Amino acid sequence: MVDFTYIEDQRRGHLEVSPELRFFMNYEQAQAEHVAHSHNYLELAFILRGHARHLTVKGESICRSGELIVIPKGAWHGYSDCQDLELVNCLFSPQLLFAGIGLVGG
């Protein structure tokens, strides 16, 4: 079982995944609006269908079918105005990227 802990403050939340988890993937058939949050891992979101507004510290943009969104560890983001949004999230721990793949520092 995956151990997720969600911590929310006044404006946004933070999702922590247990340190033992190196990689996790989930499929969202009907992604709903999601308040701005950050997390302790690198996230790749593959947009399979639909569109939404993707909110980040740099502003907002429309994400559409066929796009890949890269969310670095510690960066906050969220979704609004989701229209038939279907996506796959791949979560990579910093430990996996550093030790296993060698892409980023630990």
From TrEMBL:
<dbReference type="InterPro" id="IPR014710">
    <property type="entry name" value="RmlC-like_jellyroll"/>
</dbReference>
<dbReference type="Pfam" id="PF07883">
    <property type="entry name" value="Cupin_2"/>
</dbReference>
<feature type="domain" description="Cupin type-2">
    <location>
        <begin position="24"/>
        <end position="80"/>
    </location>
</feature>
<dbReference type="InterPro" id="IPR011051">
    <property type="entry name" value="RmlC_Cupin_sf"/>
</dbReference>
<protein>
    <submittedName>
        <fullName>Cupin domain-containing protein</fullName>
    </submittedName>
</protein>
<dbReference type="InterPro" id="IPR013096">
    <property type="entry name" value="Cupin_2"/>
</dbReference>
